Amino acid sequence: MIKIKNLGLELAQKEIFSGLNIEIRRGEKLGITGGEGAGKSSLLDILAGRLIQTAGELEINGECLTITGTIADFSELRMAEMSALEKLKRTLRHLNDSEIILLLDEPTKNLDAEGIEWLINFLNERTNLTAVIVSNDRYFLKRTCPKIIRLGNIQAPKINLECTPLPENTAALVVKSLVKVRAGETVFQHVGFTIRQGQKVALVGKNNIGRSKLLKTLITAWQNPITNGGVERGTIKFAEGLKVAYMPKVYSSATAKIELENIQNTGANFLLLDSPTACLDLPAIEEFERALQNFKGTIIFSEEDRAFLENVANRIIDVAPSGTVDRISTYEEFLANETVKTQIKEKYNLQ
């Protein structure tokens, strides 16, 4: 189906990769990970015929279809209004599994947890469909690809998050009955919790705007307590002795690296992180994950990377528009809990 022998690529007189040998049979799914600049997307471009290798041999039996994580065709108004999952479903319908080779470049990037599960099931059910998948989503690759290769040997810079923590069991943050309205619509309401020293709290759920707004509300309240974060109702109280650092959601790897540098060496013992891995490559994600696991302070973060959630968080809060579902557990335990499932249905008014 696909035979790659001693494949090499140079761009602007720089070697991207060399000596690559891969064989993929019909129906197999191959995962490709690696750091920024390791040549992951370039390899897909070679397979699709958009880029010519500088060394080696390539044999492909089938038609390649490339899908990226953006999947946006704004030439049609209907497409512009569709969700990422709807666009993906539209793109993947009517595939001829025996002829198509699916080339997926960061396919989970704009999908929520429900969309990722749909794509996992789609790929696993299509046993005759061949796919080459470039992704740093470790959970997704583990569920879909029996074989995963890693390009490059890039080491991420060490991340230093040393701090002086509050005394054990101190209430680092107390939030009561928050209500946030934007343009006449309720972003979140009935939000209340007490975060204690050392807890690493993941904000999850379908209410993406609500999660980001909650983090922004908290940092605004920290920076200017008089404003109380700009909420319509409720109170926010940080403990004495806290030093808070905030990493906003970013949209480029360069900006992500700058924000990471900004929160280091500050001595902050309370971190607010909004989608911190969204624009990081895998080595940086793994290094950041290690740093947060060893961090002695307190964290509240919003994140879509399921492996990152599982490896860092010890408490989960689903921020629905009508309230929260809160549990001290890992993310996988949270998802599997029947009481949690019932509470989430109620909060989102699901049948």
Blueprint of the fold:
Layout: E1 2-11, E2 14-24, E3 29-34, H1 40-48, E4 55-60, E5 63-68, H2 77-81, H3 84-92, E6 100-105, H4 113-125, E7 130-134, H5 138-144, E8 147-151, E9 171-182, E10 185-196, E11 200-204, H6 208-223, E12 233-238, E13 244-247, H7 253-263, E14 270-274, H8 282-294, E15 298-302, H9 306-312, E16 315-320, E17 323-327, H10 331-336, H11 338-347
Parallel strand pairs: 3-7, 3-8, 5-6, 6-7, 11-15, 11-16, 13-14, 14-15
Antiparallel strand pairs: 1-2, 1-4, 9-10, 9-12, 16-17
Plain-language structure description:
The protein has 351 residues and is of the alpha/beta class. The chain has eleven helices and 17 strands.
Give the number of helices.
11
Mean pLDDT: 91
Structural class: alpha/beta
Q: Major beta sheet, specifics?
A: 6 strands, mixed
Biggest β-sheet: strands ordered side by side in the sheet = 13-14-15-11-16-17
- Strand share of the residues? 25-35%
- Give the overall shape, derived from the CA principal axes: globular
How far apart are the termini? Answer: 45 Å
Considering DSSP H and I runs of 4 or more, what fraction of the residues is helical?
Answer: 25-40%
Instruction: Show unreliable segments.
Output: 71-78
Order of helices and strands: EEEHEEHHEHEHEEEEHEEHEHEHEEHH
